[in-house]
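U., I forgot to send this yesterday:
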Amino acid sequence: MAIKKVVKSSVSQQVFDQLQGQILAGAWKSGDKLPSENDLAAQFGVSRVTVRNALQKLSGLGLIETRFGEGSFVRGPEAGAAFNQLVPMLYLGEETARDVLTFRRMVEGPICEIACRRATDREIAALRAALDEMERAAAGGDEAAFAGLDSAFHAQLAEMTRSRMMQQIYQVIDGAMQSAYRRAARRQSAQVALGWYRQVVDALEARDAARARQAIEQSLAQTFWVSSLYQDVVNMEAAWPGRVAVRWYDEAAGAVREVLYRDYAADIRRMVGYLRRNVPDTAGRHIGILALSGYPYAVALFGCMLAGAVAVPLGFEKDWPALAAEIALADVDCLLTDGAYAERQPGFADGPGRYAGPCLDIGAFAGCTELAELSECADPDALALILFTSDSAGGSKGVMLSQRNLFAPMRLFTEPFEAVRRQWGLDADYQFSSFSVLPLYHIAALSSLISWSISGNAVNFCTDLRRFYRDLAAMPSDVMAVVPTLLKSIHHDVMKGKAARLGRLRLFTCGAATYDPAMLADLIDRGYTVLQTYGLTETVGDGGWNSAQDAAHLASVGLRDPDMDYRLEDGELCMKGDAVFLGYYKDPEATAAVLRDGWFHTGDTARIDADGYIYLTGRRDALMVLPSGENVSPEELEGLLARCPAVREALVCQAEGRICARITCREGAREEVRAYVARLNRTLPLYKRITALEFAASPLPRTPLGKLQRK
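Result:
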């Protein structure tokens, strides 16, 4: 057998490929013993760990079996080898974990159902004993032992089918999932898995095949991917208890405060107990949250929903009349507040239109000693959250979201950071820190709060942009979610040679609008990573994710989420999936206008290229229809105007059949802007040319979420 020296970087895969090829070519026959790990390592010129990883993959495929104390032996030409030809994609690496899990959910349900019909009472009793052993491992905190026993539990189910084919299928997928098991053992709650396994065994004992199948499918769905707030909190306690969960700069102390995940979970439990004592019949009540973003706000969000109430985050920056209308619309029963809004808007507490409902101190949970018992969400499709979103005219609609909605995009939001960790050369246990500057009533900040807790990363709260650089220096961070105006300011500082002020911050997740590709390219060229995202409040921010750092795709808002369906209707982007909201609160007409047969009509016009990248071209409700009959997107022209360094803001509209632009810039830069527009017009078709310019001395009006207000 001729083994070639491994000289490239993907050494483990090359070792696997060569060994696999030798076995399938017959160089090693059935029953032959493979050379020892030491011998193979010497022949390949690699480490024993690399060889061991390759052997584990071969074992999972059923091509070899490893006997304790004896070595590894080639298996005969049986089903395992055939499956090896059919499913090589399962061994492409960590990126395929989602695909493998989907495959598992397809096959392990039938495996469990057949096992229920064919297993003997003795075998079911043995499975119960195995479950008891798993519970002891979980109670002792032995993650490695639990992962191994978890794998053995599924293998026993496959053996109980009496089908060699079923057992071979399981060997294939189990081998592919071993590394995922080891990674997930730290992230999952063993108690979540054990809860479903108990139901599996109970169903087997009752010979209820349908219930056994449902339980095993639910275990796979919920063990590897946290899918409810209850699981998230239990995961904080079981997987990351000693990690930092949240940081913020304490103005009174003049120092940074940190909260560990075990204490974060305990405070959430305290908040649940506090609400149950102070809000009669908590379940189903609508509780408004009106406070500065920060740690108490985060605890309140979790606490309200875990107490069974409907959380209603409210926009702190809105004036009182606008906020009062939203409170009335959302049927808010009481408010959790820190008193800061009353200082900012006296009409909140005084005057004829003041708030007359009960107010609770959002920080009072800290004085509670009782840690409330939590339970799994009884109905994942029930209303859990109302978030207000603004349209381009400044109107508000209450977006209704369930826990299923909230957790549907979390795979998309968490998986790319595994790739980033490898690209940056970080070890598997490295904890990212996210610098959070967006308000928690913004879907990007709220969904990040959940995704970071699932991943065991830290959130560093900056509650005042005026102290941006002070807080960033005090709380070094790797990642920050940004909106266009904020990234433009950062880009300006970087280009002026002030990049050192950002510290170790080098990854930006960009949402809320399209971004100037030239600006993104500038940052990428200087060592920053840019992840563009696309989503709406109505989809929990789910929609697209663009991690490409090449110029060809920088204008795209991302690839489609594999868990969502997409289509274009007359150029409008439509999406369907678990992340799509329940509807607008008390507004059936607005709901019917955008939700049809489960498809959410985003209002965004777009195109999708052959590689699956989404490119936004405008808003349907913003399109300008000219007297000539031509349709022009104002966003397209605004994006072109934004490329002029002198332009701070630009709003394009139609007036008397002409395309007009309203621009803010320094007074001394107006001639520069006029010259730029003249050059731009020469590159545009006649019907798209800007024929009127207006300069504004003050910032252009925007919605509470920072979008240009057009009407």
